[in-house]
Specification:
Elements: E1 6-9, H1 15-28, H2 40-52, E2 57-62, E3 65-74, E4 84-91, H3 100-114, E5 119-125, H4 131-138, E6 142-153, E7 156-166
Parallel strand pairs: 4-5
Antiparallel strand pairs: 1-2, 2-3, 3-4, 5-7, 6-7
Helix pairs in contact: 1-2
Length: 171
């Protein structure tokens, strides 16, 4: 497999591979608090909702295979939060360590800024791996806090770390 990949807007044809990538993390890790893998139809609703809000949903493709995805969703439903989004980034386990996550997150941040977002929040589950924290740090996120024992999955309590990236720093 070549090392070149493309980051582009997600399309309907990408949703089965997106669902498969997500299913791996749902069933084998605590990195997502989903407990039932969303089906492609669920992903279509999510894609449509985010498109309606003008928020980015991206995929990374390598040699014709979707190998990762990223999207931004509203942080909270109350109107005053309308300029704050939460990022989500997942890479196929067979494509880790190739810079795909960094490329997806960088493109996502650009898309968030173009959509009018001013703050991006990362909610990172304590999984025993620092990879997600390191990725977010490399792209300018700073630690904003820790929520203790807020999730219960695979028989254990899980903390989450909150990281934040200001897309419009104070002058």
């Amino acid at each position: 497999m070549g090392e070149e990949f493309t980051v582009r807007a997600a399309a309907r044809a990408d949703l089965e591979p997106v669902a498969a990538i997500c299913a791996h993390y749902v069933t084998t890790t605590v990195t997502t608090f989903e407990e039932v893998p969303p089906a492609a139809a669920d992903w279509q609703r999510r894609l449509d909702d985010l498109a309606g809000r003008g928020l980015p949903f991206l995929v990374a493709e390598q040699d014709g295979t979707v190998c990762g995805y990223a999207y931004a969703s509203p942080w909270r439903p109350k109107p005053a939060y309308r300029y704050t989004v939460e990022d989500t980034v997942y890479i196929s386990p067979s494509h880790l360590g190739r810079g795909i996550g960094r490329a997806l997150l960088a493109a996502l941040l650009t898309g968030c800024a173009q959509a009018g977002a001013r703050q991006v929040i990362a909610v990172i589950a304590e999984s025993g791996s620092d990879a997600s924290v390191a990725l977010h740090r490399r792209l300018g996120f700073t630690m904003a806090g820790r929520l203790r024992r807020v999730g219960f999955k695979h028989g254990r309590w899980i903390d989450t770390m909150l990281m934040q990236r200001d897309l419009e720093p104070d002058e």
